[in-house]
Structures are given as structure tokens and as C-alpha cells.
Design goal:
Elements lengths: L3 E9 L3 E9 L2 E6 L1 E4 L6 E2 L6 E3 L11 E6 L2 E3 L1 H5 L5
Antiparallel strand pairs: 1-2, 1-5, 2-3, 3-7, 4-6, 7-8
Length: 87
Amino acid sequence: SAAGRVVYAGDLPIRGSHVIVDHGVGVYTGYSHLATRHVTQGQMLARGQVIGTVGTTGRVSGAHFHWEVAVNGAFVDGAYFVTMWMP
């Protein structure tokens, strides 16, 4: 989504292989059900850097990509952020 620091890279019961990126100013993005993770906790990411591949980990019925955005601890509509500039 944008540059940031990986604050979590691990497995969760429902989200499966999961990565959370801190973009600063209270904005976090999450990426779930990954088949592979290409990042580690604490790693700095550049915009567009590959963090993993689509998979079927966690509670799913088929391969897909789950993306979420939280601002100041509240989940928000990620479609809104697609149109915004982020560093």
C-alpha cells in the first residue's frame, strides 16, 4: 500500500499467515491468508515491495487476498485509501 515498517509477521488462527504494516500517523494495513511471507517483523518496506503471495492459510474456503486498513485503532473502508496519497 505504502512505505512502512512491518510490526507483525506471523500466523493467526483465523487470518492465517498475516502481516501488519505501520505506515505512521496512526495508519496500519493488514494482509491475510498469505501462502508465503517475504518480510520479517521490524523490516522497513518501500511502496510496492512484495510482502507475500496469495494463499489459503487460516479460515478460508479458497485462495484469496484479504487487505484491511485501520486508522487510530478503527477499521476503515480500504477503497477510500486506494485513491489517497501515502508516503
